[in-house]
Structure formats: structure tokens, C-alpha cells
Automatic annotation (TrEMBL):
The lineage of its organism: Eukaryota, Metazoa, Chordata, Craniata, Vertebrata. This is Alpha-galactosidase. It comes from Triplophysa rosa (Cave loach). Belongs to the glycosyl hydrolase 27 family. It is found in: Lysosome. Residues 1-18 form the signal peptide.
Amino acid sequence: MQRAAVLLVLAFSTSTFSLDNGLMRTPPMGWLAWERYRCNTDCQNDPENCISEKLFMDMADRLSEDGWKELGYVYVNIDDCWSSMQRDGQGRLQADPKRFPGGIAKLARYVHDRGLKLGIYGDMGTHTCGGYPGTTLDKVQIDAQTFAEWGIDMLKLDGCYSNSTYQEQGYPMMSKALNATSRPIGYSCSWPAYQGGLPPKVNYTMLGEICNLWRNYDDIQDSWDSVLSIVDWFFNNQDELQPAAGPGQWNDPDMLIIGDFGLSMDQSRAQMALWGILAAPLFMSNDLRTISSGARAILQNKVAIAINQDPLGIQGKRLLKEKSGIEVFWRPLYKGASALVFVSRRSDMPYRYKTSLKTLNYTPGVYEVYDVFMERTVSTLKDSTEFVVSINPSGVVMWYLSPASDWQEEADSLRFSEKLIGRKFHRHAKDAHAPLVL
Ligand SMILES: *[C@@H]1O[C@H](CO)[C@@H](O)[C@H](O)[C@H]1NC(C)=O
Ligand SMILES: *[C@@H]1O[C@H](CO)[C@@H](O)[C@H](O)[C@H]1NC(C)=O
Ligand SMILES: *[C@@H]1O[C@H](CO)[C@@H](O)[C@H](O)[C@H]1NC(C)=O
């Protein structure tokens, strides 16, 4: 088993050096305003949902009081439309005085007092996407300094009202400027998303040296179609994208929309599972004040989170795309463990997919299989054992597999199959060649 684990790691090793700020050795987790709240600045008529200090204080309260923080969801992130339309007399960005009467520094203290971190948003161009003041090259230093003085912990730097030559200068310049403040500030770069997201236009080696995470592709919207288009793009381009990720440097397929309006519970589990395979940042964009218990359970699933947060930080891949509409994804994890995700893109009924671990490239051995969303160990599987998983339409089955430690040699296989037969799988001797139904 030891040998198998080493081979898996080597096959996926990343060779790049990451941004040296010591941050985000596992994908960052938290909450981000954009997808759910957009540029809603109408606090007069919609005080609960407008971009204001109240919204971020409410979410900080929920993260710290409802069990999120302990699971790793610690960032409270502001997106666009927070600032005043004008810089102040000294050329510094300032928060909209009506919607953030206490200012950002006070909001940062509020968030820090609850053991959380505060993220903010800027734009490497003349204006933000929402038309607020951007960070032009002459403002990079002063903006970095302002964010540091406020106690900001993370910056998302968007790329509207800009161009490729400008971004080529500006994104590395901001990285240096953040470092020069001597405050550790996580750095999210939207740069690749504005350059098509792929080499040779995008240099992922360089991105890993200057950013902690980066948006590669389109914004997520509140629909299953949007999730699928993102998933397809990331896995269709996995050979280019997968090696770019690692501790301190992550591909970002955008926010989790679990708890909003567009996904069923099955689709929500699918997003959680695939964001785990992708080693993606987990930024929820939802209303934590009113989230359903079903959505909360998915987002707070400990094993799904542990897979996402695996210390090796190796992004996973799509192994198979079957004509039947079943797709299989795999991610290698710490200590020879791994995650498997079976996705159904069908729209008829639960599909019974038959395979074996050997077919999925597993090295010979015996593996203990834990079903992440059923929250229980479902089987011990020999690599050659055929099994059947039942996958709901637009749903997933997510497994955490670890090498069974007491496995010796072929000699044990008889004892092993007896053990299986004796368990809850209703396998009778005469069905010895039938696949195991899980
Ligand atoms: C790129 O954007 C900058 C800033 O707006 C502008 O000064 C420059 O002329 C632009 N360059 C091109 C090639 O459009
Ligand atoms: C700045 O960069 C240096 C050298 O790469 C690194 O040692 C240091 O921790 C960085 N500081 C911050 C605040 O990011
Ligand atoms: C990409 O960036 C790296 C590191 O900055 C550099 O060494 C390399 O030459 C760049 N690659 C290309 C194709 O420009």
C-alpha cells in the first residue's frame, strides 16, 4: 500500500513554488457576498439584503455561532459595490458612508473579535465591474496600504475596465505591494478569467508565484446549468489546470450556491462533492440567517470538508465520461486515501453503475469505503470486486477510500469474501459472481 500511495502522489506532483505569504495551505473557506447579493445597494427598501455593514456583521454572527467557524469557514468576504464613488482627499478608497457608517476598519474588528477574517474586493482597472473606483497602476500601493491598515485579510482583485497589458503589470505589482505592507493578506486574482483561462495566454507557473487563488472561468449563477458548465470547463481542461494547484495556490471555480434557489438537494451534494475533487476554495454565497437544515448539513459535512481540505492539496481529475451519462472523478489524498465521485447527468431514474476499483485504476489491495453523504462505512472492497452504485439523476455518490490496514495477501481473500457475505449485502453463495450492490 505504501508503494501505491507514493506512485499516486508522484503521478500528480506539482513542481511550482507558491506565493510565499504562508497563507491558504489548504483551500480557503468562508462566505462571499457576490452571487446571492450582487450589487444590491438599495438599503432603503431592502435593508436585510443590501451590501452594507449589517449584512457582513449578520454573516459573521452566523459563521461564529452556527458551527461554521469550527469547520473552517472563517472568511467573511465583501465583493463589489462596497465603496464610495469617490476616493477621499488623500486618494484612498473609502466605504460608502451610508451603507458602512462605521467604516471598514471597524467592521474588520467586529469580524476579528469573532475569530473570523475579513476579505475585500478591488479591481485592476479604471473601474470595478459595478462602476466603482478601480485600482489603476498609480493606486496599487496606496490601496494595498489602506487594506492593510484596515486589517483586511484577503483581497479579491477583479479585472473589469482593464486590458491584458495593464493586467500583466498590475497583478504582480499588487502582489508585491501586499507583501510590502507586511500584513499577511490572501490574494485572489481574477486575471486568468479575463484571458481565457488557458495557456499559453495564461502562465499558471507565474500565477502560483504571485496569487493564492485565481478565478479561471465564468462567474457562477444560481442554476444547475451554470454548475455543469463550470464543471465541464474545468475537467475538459484538467491537463492544463490540475498541475497549477497546490498548497498556497488554488484554481477557483467560484462560489458554492448551496442553500440558494437553483439546486436540488442532489445537485447541492454534487456541487459539494465536485468542489472537493477540484480542491476548490469553499466560499458560500447564500443567506446563513435562513438556510435550510438540508443545505446546512451538506455544507457542514465533515468528511466532504476533510476531502476538500486534504493536506497534500493535490487537485483531482475526471477519470471517465461514460456514454450512459455517468462520470467518475478521483482525487488522491493523504496517507494513500482517495476520493471517488460518481455523477449522473441523466434525467430518468437512479442509474445502477457497475464497475470495480481495478477498472478505475486502483492498485491491487483492499480498501475501506466510506459513503460521504450517507455518513457511514458501506463496504470493504478488493480492487477486483465488481460492485454497483446507484446514482440519482443530477446527483452523486461520493466515497472516501482508505487502504484496509489488516490486508495481507491473497491468502486472506477467502476470509475476506466470507466476511462480506456475512454482512448486510445479502450476498448468497450462489451469487458469488454477482456484483456487490452498494
Ligand atoms: C490599457 O488600459 C490602460 C488603462 O486604462 C490604458 O491606459 C491603455 O491605453 C490600454 N491599452 C490598450 C492597448 O488598450
Ligand atoms: C513577503 O515575501 C517574503 C519573501 O518571499 C516572505 O518571506 C514574507 O513572509 C512575505 N510577507 C508577507 C507579509 O506576505
Ligand atoms: C511563466 O512564468 C514563469 C515564472 O515566472 C517563467 O519562468 C516562465 O518563463 C513563464 N513561461 C512563459 C511561457 O512565459
